[in-house]
From TrEMBL:
Keyword Transport part of the UniProt annotation: no
Lineage of the species this protein comes from: Bacteria, Bacillati, Actinomycetota, Actinomycetes, Frankiales
Region (Disordered): 1-41
Record-annotated site: Participates in a stacking interaction with the thymidine ring of dTDP-4-oxo-6-deoxyglucose: Y204
One MF annotation (Gene Ontology) recorded for this entry: dTDP-4-dehydrorhamnose 3,5-epimerase activity
Family per record: Belongs to the dTDP-4-dehydrorhamnose 3,5-epimerase family.
UniProt KW keywords: Isomerase
Record-annotated active site: H128 (proton acceptor), Y198 (proton donor)
Entry protein name: dTDP-4-dehydrorhamnose 3,5-epimerase
Alphabetical GO biological process terms: dTDP-rhamnose biosynthetic process; polysaccharide biosynthetic process
Top-level division of the source organism's lineage: Bacteria
Organism the protein comes from: Frankia canadensis
Length: 278
């Protein structure tokens, strides 16, 4: 027990130390001067009761050739694996492509704020979300070190309410993670000085920001048991998912879907106005 709340029991973790199950996403082919191929992104999901299950093969949903796009088991969250170009000078990649994101999400990311955090190993941030509407969509990437990132479906009425998907983000594959409005987001630093950059669709608005305790045993998020979680006072005092649901603090699946339709319609109208359609 930590900060008055129990940690998920080790038996709720998947074996292997990190509590994560490898997926079957395709590894990127090696390029000249590149390091040996690494494992593709790793992901798991679990029911609200904490029963772990593999996400299974990644479903490639995008066609933009500079990036591979896979939807997670939690709907409305995607992983973007960029193509890297390496030579004797170093490496170049496009870590964000608006057209690639809009292709699968249905609208572009309206950039309002860019954040950057640096965390010591074991630092646990989240589970954070913003009130809908307008909430806040995020595009997250790890520029140094390695983190375990979790997306949680906290939308009441969702077919996957209470489920999560987890992804390892690092400075090797340099994947990006898109988290739609209304979803919960949390990550743990797996290395010292892990640096995360993320693009946000709306500015930070304190009175519209909420959280779920990241060590909620009902969620059983797969934080590595060998790391001692380091939480902020605010995150330590956050309610469990059940408590937040009982208090009426969670977004609904219906209002999130309505927001997504509104954003797609606005994106389509903007495309037509810019000469992108007839």
């Amino acid at each position: 027990m930590r900060d008055g709340r129990p940690r998920p029991r080790p038996e709720n973790m998947t074996p292997g130390g990190t509590g994560i199950t490898p997926g079957n996403g395709r590894a990127r082919p090696p390029t000249s001067g590149a390091s040996p191929p690494q494992e593709p992104h790793l992901c798991t999901n679990a029911s609200r009761q904490g029963r772990a299950a593999c996400c299974g093969p990644s479903r490639v949903t995008g066609t933009v050739t500079v990036v591979e796009i896979s939807e997670l088991s939690v709907p409305d969250a995607w992983v973007f694996t960029p193509r890297q170009h390496s030579d004797s000078r170093g490496t170049f990649l496009e870590w964000f492509r608006s057209d690639a994101l809009a292709e699968v999400v249905g609208h572009p990311l309206a950039l309002s704020q860019a954040n950057h955090s640096v965390s010591r190993s074991g630092t646990l941030r989240g589970v954070h979300y913003a009130q809908v509407p307008p909430s806040q969509a995020k595009y997250v990437t790890c520029v140094r070190g390695r983190v375990l990132d979790c997306v949680v479906d906290i939308r009441t009425g969702s077919p996957t309410f209470g489920a999560f998907a987890s992804v390892v983000l690092d400075d090797v594959d340099r994947c990006g993670l898109y988290v739609s409005e209304g979803l919960g987001h949390a990550f743990m630093a797996l290395t010292d000085d892990a640096a995360i950059s993320y693009l946000c669709s709306t500015p930070y608005t304190p009175d519209r920001e909420f959280g779920i305790h990241p060590l909620d045993p009902d969620l059983a998020l797969p934080w590595p048991p060998e790391l001692v979680p380091l939480l902020s006072a605010k995150d330590s005092a956050a309610p469990t998912l059940k408590e937040a649901e009982s208090a009426g603090l969670l977004p609904t699946y219906r209002e999130c879907q309505a927001l997504y339709r509104e954003l797609r319609a606005a994106g389509a109208a903007a495309s037509v106005g810019a000469g992108g359609g007839r």
